[in-house]
Amino acid sequence: MWNVLLSFSGLVALIQLLFLPFFPESPPYLLLQKEDKAGCLKAMKQLWGEGNYHTEFDDLMKEKAITKGTKIMNVLEVLRERSVYPQLCTMLLLLLSLQLCGLNIFETANLQESIIPYVSLGVSISELISIIFCSSIIDRFGRRTLLCCGYLLMALILVLLETSLLLSDQFLWLRYCSVILIFLFIIAYGLGP
């Protein structure tokens, strides 16, 4: 019944996708990244109700002033920064340990047992690609856009994955499509949610 459980996460993603457009952008994002003061105040009122938010707004303005001279680093610059090596090592260990959690979806897709380790390696590479890609585009598009696109892609990929798994006994080539869809699902998850 794992496929029902997998479909349930798609249902939750679809519900979030339907309600996400009704929520405003994050006030710090609007002020610090977009430099939209009016939008920031409007988002604060929308999120927290009517009231006086000048203290919070002033705190954000102070943060903006402090970070004004700070350069936003890209992925390669972060990798060259020695002070983040402990956090980077921790993150890489967590990603690598995920591969030991016993994903048996590849056995369910009736893949040859000899290629399953390579497919697991592909999953790790997909996770790494999504992390690098997301960290480089999040400032350009914002979290809300990435969440919407990520959930939409995840829902579409889950429908295609369920279909390919159901038909994999009739069409052997769909087994490999299932693997590709799993890679795409992981990349879509890493981009948004």
Automatic annotation (TrEMBL):
It is found in: Membrane. InterPro entries: GLUT, MFS_dom, MFS_sugar_transport-like, MFS_trans_sf. Residues 1-17 form the signal peptide. Its main location: membrane. GO terms for molecular function: D-glucose transmembrane transporter activity. GO terms for cellular component: plasma membrane. It is a multi-pass membrane protein. The chain crosses the membrane at residues 84-106, 118-138, 144-161, 173-192. Keywords: Membrane, Signal, Transmembrane, Transmembrane helix. GO terms for biological process: D-glucose import; dehydroascorbic acid transport. Residues 1-193 form the Major facilitator superfamily (MFS) profile domain. This is GTR9 protein.
